[in-house]
TrEMBL record, chain A:
Record-level GO cellular component terms: fatty acid synthase complex
Domain MaoC-like: 16-104
One Pfam family in the UniProt entry: MaoC_dehydratas
GO BP annotations, alphabetical order: fatty acid biosynthetic process
InterPro entries xref list: Fatty_acid_synthase, HotDog_dom_sf, MaoC-like_dom
UniProt record similarity statement: Belongs to the enoyl-CoA hydratase/isomerase family.
PANTHER family: (3R)-HYDROXYACYL-ACP DEHYDRATASE SUBUNIT HADB (PTHR43841:SF3), 3-HYDROXYACYL-THIOESTER DEHYDRATASE HTDX-RELATED (PTHR43841)
Origin superkingdom: Bacteria
GO terms of molecular function: fatty acid synthase activity
Name used for this protein in its record: MaoC family dehydratase
Native source species: Umezawaea endophytica
UniProtKB/TrEMBL annotation, chain B:
TM helices/strands, residue ranges: none
Domain FAS1-like dehydratase: 6-137
Family the UniProt entry places it in: Belongs to the UPF0336 family.
Protein name per the record: UPF0336 protein NZH93_36560
Organism: Umezawaea endophytica
Length: 139, 154
């Protein structure tokens, strides 16, 4: 588990590649009780002007949190986490799914001793979570 | 049509309690790919200093989104919920949500704006235990796409 004494501003966290498939969308819909049909019904998604079924923004947010929790080792270290939902992530009906590349770095050490982490998440090279940051408290 | 500005500052009565179970935490952790045993094994959670398994950082959406429905569905506010998308989301945890918590949510309307033809409502869900211990503050913006357009053009 990482300790505060080992961390300085500018440190890069190990990056993460997320793979999101249709099965992940169904699993997340069940776990989160978000049954909006744009996340599972191709016909409905197209009727409302989307290219097809898209991932729940909250699923991308939830999965991207792992770039921080894998690093801290303790998921309870995350005292704050926020994102802006940018471009949607279309999820094709195939075995590969959509790939989202997640990076993170220590942006600064705050006055209360917590660390601000700046996170990026990109699909096909374009940002899908804007201004994503977490604040972590380390032992 | 622009939304009623008098809703700014309004809050709704607390939601019925939501009881957090170990199984729901495990299910949610599986769904977002969180692998930590602290979400699954009470002994691992105790070893890390928690009384029981804790929830992943975004688990609070389960209770905050449900509580926000009172606002989204409020006919007096007149938000067109068929056009509502999630603009942003922040969770500030006073402590992690843990199995056994009985959570109640109070929903507050912090701001109402219109920008580029969209109605934008800033909502704050204050999540606490039934006993009044603060657990999480969840802030969301709800964006109703295109609903403010008529007003702008007029």
């Amino acid at each position: 588990m990482i300790r505060a004494a080992d961390v300085t501003a500018g440190d890069q966290l190990p990056p993460l590649t997320l793979t999101i498939t249709r099965a992940d969308l169904v699993r997340y819909a069940g776990a989160s009780l978000d049954f909006n049909p744009i996340h599972w019904n191709e016909r409905f998604a197209q009727e409302v002007g989307l290219p097809g079924v898209i991932a729940h923004g909250m699923l991308t947010m939830g999965m991207a949190a792992r770039v921080v929790t894998d690093w801290t080792g303790d998921p309870g270290a995350v005292v704050e986490y926020g994102v802006r939902f940018g471009r949607p992530v279309p999820v094709p009906d195939d075995a590969e799914g959509a790939r989202v590349e997640v990076t993170a770095k220590v942006a600064k050490v705050l006055d209360d001793g917590t660390f601000k982490i700046a996170i990026t998440a990109a699909f096909e090279g374009k940002s899908v979570l804007g201004g994503a940051t977490a604040r972590v408290r380390l032992p | 049509m622009a939304l009623d500005q008098s809703f700014i500052g309004r809050s709704y009565p607390p939601s019925p309690a939501y009881e957090v179970s170990r199984e729901k935490i495990r299910e949610f952790a599986d769904a977002v790919g969180e692998r930590s045993e602290i979400h699954r094994d009470p002994e691992a959670a105790k070893a890390a200093g928690y009384p029981d398994v804790i929830a992943p950082p975004t688990f609070a959406i389960l209770v905050s989104m449900k509580a926000n429905e009172v606002l989204v569905m409020d006919p007096e506010l007149g938000l067109d919920y068929t056009r509502v998308v999630h603009g942003d989301q922040t969770f500030a945890h006073h402590r992690p949500i843990q199995a056994g918590d009985r959570l109640v949510v109070t929903t507050h309307v912090d701001a109402i704006n219109s920008r580029m033809g969209n109605d934008i409502v800033s909502v704050r869900a204050e999540i606490s235990t039934e006993d009044g211990e603060q657990v999480t503050t969840a802030r969301s913006t709800l964006v109703a796409r295109g609903t403010a357009a008529t007003e702008d053009q007029a």
